[in-house]
Amino acid sequence: MHDFRPSLLPSGAHADPAVLARLSGLVNEVYAEAESGLWHAGAARTTVEEVAELTAAGQIAVACLGTYIVGCVRIRPPDHRAAEFGMLAADPAHRGHGIGHELVAFAERRALDSGRPVMQLEILTPRSWTHPSKEFLAGWYTRLGYLRTGVSPVEGSYPALAPLLATPCDLVVYRKRL
Ligand SMILES: CC(C)(COP(=O)(O)OP(=O)(O)OC[C@H]1O[C@@H](n2cnc3c(N)ncnc32)[C@H](O)[C@@H]1OP(=O)(O)O)[C@@H](O)C(=O)NCCC(=O)NCCS
Hints:
Elements (H helix, E strand, L loop, with lengths): L6 E2 L8 H18 L13 H9 L3 E6 L2 E9 L5 E9 L8 H15 L4 E9 L5 H12 L3 E7 H4 L11 E9 L1
Parallel strand pairs: 4-5
Antiparallel strand pairs: 1-2, 2-3, 3-4, 5-7, 6-7
The site of coenzyme A has 18 residues, from helix 1, strand 4, helix 3, strand 5 and helix 4.
């Protein structure tokens, strides 16, 4: 069993093209499969520019195999009470070894350490059909102690993203008291 203990990516890594290419490539590869059918062709989950910004802001944590990034998560404090994570991805070649679990636990520890005892996440979910990846996530987060607390249409929260969707979707919000 490997040690995938996550760490925050140093903000200076925002200037490392190899790190940014790997991060954006990993997220886009993983989400292309996990969100297949939700987006029009050509809509990528992220860009090199976005991961550079998030890295510079100290919001990206990674799990590595040696120096190779095999998982990542974005940790964002949206307000003073709830922290939020997103852009969670594990390399498909290394699934089921605890990378996802370690990244979520890392995000939760950081939230607690910064005095935010509530963690939040959103699952983009098709409104009128079930997506196997989203069903898996809903079950997994529930097993991790998250409760479904709300649902809102994408067009309400992220109007710029709505036209890129191939099917109507909601953002289902989950929260956990840490
Ligand atoms: C969610 C994700 C990060 C989990 O990564 P991971 O490294 O496999 O996670 P873990 O090894 O900690 O396993 C997490 C759970 O998945 C289950 N699992 C992992 N691989 C599996 C597989 N091939 N088949 C069935 N279940 C599997 C594990 O049993 C575990 O469940 P448990 O905690 O109840 O035992 C990964 O599946 C992923 O990148 N998914 C696509 C992106 C995504 O949907 N992100 C979340 C957006 S909110």
